[in-house]
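Obj.: predict assembly geometry.
Materials: sequence records (below).
Method: joint structure prediction, all chains together.
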Amino acid sequence: MDARALGSRPRVPGHDAETGLSYLPALQSLAARIDTFIDVFGRITAWSTFALVLVMAGNVLLRYLFSTGSVWSQELEWHLMAPISLFGISYALRHGEHVRVDVVYGSFSPRKKRLVDLISALLAIVVSILVIKLSWNYVGQSWAIGEASANPGGIPYRYVLKALIPIGFALLAVQSVAEAARALIAFRNAA
Amino acid sequence: MPLNEILAIGMLVAFFVFLLAGIPVALTLAISGFVFGWLGFGPLLFNLLPNRIFGAVTNYTLIAIPLFVFMGVMLEKSRLAEDLMDVVGLAAGKLRGGLGLGIILVGVLMGATTGIVGATVVTLGLLTLPGLLRRGYDKGLACGTICASGTLGQIIPPSLILILLADIMSESVGTLFAAAVMPGLLLAGIYCAYMLGLGLLAPKMAPAVSDAERAQVSWSQLTIKLLRVVAPPLGLILAVLGSIIGGVAAPTEAASMGALGAIGVTALGRRFSWQVLKETVQTTTKITAMVMFILICAQVFALAFRGLQGERLVHDFFQLLPGGTNAAVWFLMALIFVLGFFIEWIEISYIVVPLFLPVFQQLGVDPVWLAMLICVNLQTSFLTPPFGWALFFLRGVAPPDIATGDIYRGVIPFVLMQILALTLVFLFPGLATWLPKAIGW
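Observations (raw structure tokens):
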């Protein structure tokens, strides 16, 4: 069973958009390359969920059975959650997982739909750039002091964790370029 | 009217325009928040944003989301629903309306195990709809039962909606899980009563399975199947829910054990493989990221709305309503019900609930009770045409002789029953608040 059945709504199309003629072939191959890149990144990230299950379950067992545990391994729990959330955004976009309301959208002509897709992709790029810009200082300050966990015995790489915010949104911007390219091609073809 | 209030209203309007145009939900939140926050305040307003995002992606409570999704997807892949339906359908088949009863029961069990509405509706639709029609069930009734039963997953704990509401309303997840048990069972109970009533009053709509068909499978075969395939996942979910509601383990902790246990159960059913694990982690990542992206973008919206004094606006608006607290509650319920026709639980939980929450806190409304009213009410958003989520999923798997009109017609009685349940929870708040109190949350 595919992800479609597992709790989300009508997908945002684009990943399976009709690619049509070999119109603007450079754009098309760029989009395909980006897809592959984001897919590899996403599939690797996805294993964090399994790691999270193991780490969390391990901590629980250690605590309840042996009344022991470490700050480090407890912090690891949310150090795994952050990449799932942030790197997963571009991966979910690649697979058209982000939900939309299609009350009106559903009745649009194919050309109009592709136009909305194009605008959505461009907006995603704008939002990504804004978030990267806003988080730049926040992350920069953390790197400058090599910010570590505030807890004794914690994971000393808080600055790396914070850097995941701009990286995650940079990935989103990159995948959005692919979505925009495909929407543009489909829009021209649907003319 | 001050400029900021006009901007706050403009932001809400822009949000709905973008939303209806079909821009993905998360982006509509971020864009309307950025634009109107910027107009009102300039860029300084958003300096808090990175810290908010960091807070969201490292929030301990929300770690329960990927863990519960992992558990649900894994159990889904163990094809739990098929086995449950085999057993329950045959066991209840001799009763008029019995098959329908079986579907409701499976809906409850699937709700407690996987809690994934789409998967449950699709699976129930594929498995049971052809059989129901072949045995002469009314088309509308069959569709309505499947949609409503599949939707129970969103109120029967554990469910994503309860975790998110707990976060939004600053309640513990355990409290809301405990509170949701009775309203969830109440809904299921009402559906069952309706089904049995139909079996008595309109047996043509819900006939019994013929004796000849039932004789093909012996009770001993059924029992073996029950013990081998159905008991392990049910034991797992009872342990997970029991330890959360009983206060033995935090929801996040129990969720991790549930996820691990789901792997064990799948392996026990000889359905575990490398491929299944790979698909599970990938699906889990996509669903988690989708939810978290909306949460991240909702931070932008919330910062802007608060900055623009939107909360005061909402507050002033409620002052205009006559009739005090009850009127305010009913107004919110009516609003969620109407919005439910167009948008789904994610948007409602992230937008409507935070907008109105401060007002209800000031009025002294019990947040647990309010959360349950919202939850029961949100059940309708899955079923209300034209764009209820459950309808869409059933449409996707229904045989061609089922018209969209059959599905719409079929869900109407169930929407009415949901409103009945909502009214009962409103009149008897104890339905929601008794269990958490009795346990001592």
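Conclusions so far: The CA atoms of residues 278 and 284 of chain B lie 10 Å apart.
To do: check interface contacts against the pulldown list.
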